């Protein structure tokens, strides 16, 4: 069983290197941690500070005007919003991709997400629901 786990870990590392072009950056990819509508996210180590970060890759961000506008909107919002309830943008860079430039957004790594809580299909305690609602409303305010 140990050899099989090693093979799976090696395949996951190769897939990460294929998906995330981090050569020439101060970031070392560790593992993929999520997939969303607009990109994929990996956990990485910032070698300058040894801190853990999340890197969101927006593939072929400039391939169409719609994708370019969406990417620009996200970057503009994250660059100028500083709030306890919004993950800050720490860095960004681009790399050539098969359909145009890929944009990489480097953010603080969070241990969980509201999306994972919602998708867990577990019944939440009313206090936890109230806490999440409070945090969402505080972020909107």
Quick overview of this protein structure:
GO terms for molecular function: ATP binding; protein kinase activity. This protein is α+β, with helices and mostly antiparallel strands and 141 residues long. It is 39% helix and 30% strand.
Report on this structure.
By secondary structure, this protein is α+β, with helices and mostly antiparallel strands. The chain has 2 domains: 2-110, 2-Layer Sandwich (Phosphorylase Kinase, domain 1), CATH 3.30.200.20; 112-141, no CATH class. 39% of the residues lie in helices and 30% in strands. The chain is built from 4 helices and 5 strands. It has helices at 2-19, 65-80, 114-119, 126-140; strands spanning 27-35, 40-46, 51-58, 89-97, 100-108. Strands 1-2-3-5-4 form a 5-stranded antiparallel β-sheet, with helices on both faces. A hairpin with a 2-residue loop joins strand 4 (89-97) and strand 5. The N and C termini lie far apart (51 Å).
């Amino acid at each position: 069983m140990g050899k099989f786990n090693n093979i799976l870990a090696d395949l996951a590392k190769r897939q990460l290197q294929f998906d995330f072009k981090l050569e020439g950056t101060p970031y070392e990819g560790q593992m993929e941690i999520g997939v969303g509508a607009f990109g994929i996210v990996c956990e990485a180590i910032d070698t300058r500070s040894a801190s853990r970060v999340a890197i969101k890759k927006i593939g072929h961000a400039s391939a169409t005007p719609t994708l370019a506008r969406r990417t620009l909107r996200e970057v503009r919002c994250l660059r100028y919003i500083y709030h306890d309830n919004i993950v800050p943008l720490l860095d960004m860079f681009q790399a050539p991709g098969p359909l145009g430039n890929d944009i990489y957004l480097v953010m603080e790594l969070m241990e969980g997400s509201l999306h994972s809580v919602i998708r867990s299909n577990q019944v939440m305690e009313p206090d936890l629901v109230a806490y999440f609602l409070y945090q969402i409303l505080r972020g909107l305010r």
